[in-house]
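queue> holo job accepted (uracil)
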Amino acid sequence: MSLGRSRLDTLLAEKLKIKRKDVRLLLAKQQVNVDGRRAKDVDLIVDKFSFITVDEMVVQDNPAHYIILNKPIGVVSATTDDIHQTVIDLLDYPFKDQLHILGRLDLNSSGLLLLTNDSRFSQRLMHPQAKVSKTYQVTLDKPLTEDMIEAFARGMYFEFEDITTQPAKLEIISEHVAQVTLTEGRYHQIKRMFGRFRNQVVALHRDAIGRLTLDETLKPGQSRELSAKELSFFAAKDN
Ligand code: URA
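queue> job finished
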């Protein structure tokens, strides 16, 4: 995934098919604006989401998008699929084909899914060191037991990946319902963790990612752009 960052003079020379010395001239004549501000420096770092005009002419207008979706059961967390409807099929935005998914949910899981065209945002959020929490409501086939709390907190060894899972929080809500908070996203992680207790997950719903929660206004299959406030929950060092 390209992070789409470059120097302003490189980008303008490329977009306008002019020489870098001519870019310097445009800057000297104060004709270049980046994100609504007069640009002065050739070495200003811009990215693919910077809004750039030269003398009122729009040179680059490609805004970043951050979408929250309430994923229904039976829809696949992928951009294309030969068999199932995909989460992209549920969206109705002109830019939907630019989006990628942050942290998939299984076919038979539901709830909060984030999609974006901003790969820097997703790389930061998905980085193991970021430890962004993800909260799930989990319904089990058999009753929950207290020893599961300790086992989730301690971590479990997954032989296939040769890793021990990060400490996870398990709260028993009722006999068959738990709230589980993870800071990572291993393949079928919650199902595999309860599998150690021979307890099958019968329903799994993601309620929150960090401080972002799925409220009732978004019905299964519905989506919207994140508000500026919601986006600020994911500002660096604020998860
Ligand atoms: N853990 C799972 O097992 N499935 C999901 O969809 C998410 C977490």
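queue> Helices lie at 8-16, 20-28, 119-126, 147-154, 189-195, 228-232.
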